[in-house]
């Protein structure tokens, strides 16, 4: 569906994307996971044929997006970071007007709009003005609008940024339904739980380069342990406590606000901490996540 080899993008002396390789299969949910400024959105713009590449090869649906931009854009659905809805139009008119940009027949666009309003759980809001919708509703409308042309692939750039937890889960449900229907999803995110929930496969990208690739579960197995113990002793004492905890678990990471102990048995690690006479202010045993993978690979937290 989408394939890149040595893909590179430079802005003067700054390299935003530094020679990355990836391939996305039809029907796959593929993610670019990384912090802000890692090169995720730049990569998406090149795939969407709205930004040229500086070097490398890129094929989208069999086309070179630089020479066949209209053909590529006609078959993609786009969900940008920021909603670009027509705030003063009614909800249904946002879909109809957008569909006409593709040259689709009006009768088809009207039927398709009603189907998508139902899909996005916005039928009751069809005649409401967009500026009166909640943030979650606007994101669902943006996704519905991106589906108006029945795209072969959906590009979603940070689809749930700024949404509350309930709105995020509603949006995830809509995206799950698209996956079940066989739509190829390509998304960027810096939320590790979102990547684990939605992605069949992903690449971890940092400073314009890919540092790991695989399914979320495979990456966690390869780069982390089954469980993580988080303990807090206070910002001034964390480093000293970490020294006293040396040898507990398989690996220890000291962050500004907490100490992470990586082990297959977090409760056993917690017991070992107490046996050494240490009393953390707070403690938590959790399963490993992609945040831990990123920390292991880059030495810093995913969300900065």
Automatic annotation (TrEMBL):
InterPro entries linked to this entry: AAA+_ATPase (IPR003593), ABC_transporter-like_ATP-bd (IPR003439), ABC_transporter-like_CS (IPR017871), ABC_transporter_ATP-binding (IPR050763), P-loop_NTPase (IPR027417)
Membrane topology: Peripheral membrane protein
SMART domains with a match to the protein in the record: AAA
GO MF annotations in UniProt: ATP binding; ATP hydrolysis activity
Location(s), subcellular: Cell membrane
ABC transporter domain sequence ranges: 2-232
Main localization category: membrane
Classification via Gene3D superfamilies: P-loop containing nucleotide triphosphate hydrolases
GO biological process: response to antibiotic
Gene Ontology, cellular component aspect: plasma membrane
Keywords in alphabetical order: Antibiotic resistance, ATP-binding, Cell membrane, Membrane, Nucleotide-binding, Translocase, Transport
Family membership noted in the UniProt record: Belongs to the ABC transporter superfamily.
Protein name (Swiss-Prot/TrEMBL): ABC transporter
């Amino acid at each position: 569906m989408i394939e890149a080899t040595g893909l590179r993008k430079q802005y003067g002396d700054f390299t935003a994307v530094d020679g990355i390789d990836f391939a996305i299969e039809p029907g796959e949910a593929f993610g670019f996971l990384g912090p802000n400024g890692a090169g995720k959105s730049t990569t998406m713009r090149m795939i969407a044929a709205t930004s040229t590449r500086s070097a490398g090869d890129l094929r989208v649906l069999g086309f070179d997006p630089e020479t066949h931009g209209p053909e590529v854009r006609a078959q993609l659905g786009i969900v940008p970071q920021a909603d670009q809805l027509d705030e003063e139009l009614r909800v249904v008119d946002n879909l109809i007007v957008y569909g006409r940009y593709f040259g689709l027949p009006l009768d088809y666009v009207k039927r398709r709009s009603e189907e998508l309003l139902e899909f996005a759980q916005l039928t009751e809001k069809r005649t409401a003005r967009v500026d009166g919708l909640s943030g979650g509703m606007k994101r669902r409308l943006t996704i519905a609008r991106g589906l108006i042309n029945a795209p072969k692939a959906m590009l979603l750039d940070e689809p749930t940024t700024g949404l509350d937890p309930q709105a995020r889960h509603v949006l995830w449900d809509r995206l799950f339904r698209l996956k079940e229907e066989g739509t190829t999803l390509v998304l960027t995110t810096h939320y590790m739980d979102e990547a684990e929930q939605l992605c069949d496969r992903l690449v971890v990208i940092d400073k314009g380069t890919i540092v790991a690739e695989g399914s979320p579960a495979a990456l966690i197995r390869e780069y982390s342990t089954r469980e993580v113990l988080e303990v807090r002793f206070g910002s001034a004492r964390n480093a000293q406590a970490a020294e006293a905890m040396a040898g507990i678990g398989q690996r220890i990471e000291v962050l500004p606000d907490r100490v992470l102990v990586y082990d297959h048995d977090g409760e056993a690690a917690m017991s070992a901490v107490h046996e050494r006479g240490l009393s953390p202010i707070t403690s938590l045993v959790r399963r490993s996540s992609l945040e831990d993978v990123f920390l292991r690979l880059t030495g810093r937290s995913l969300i900065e």
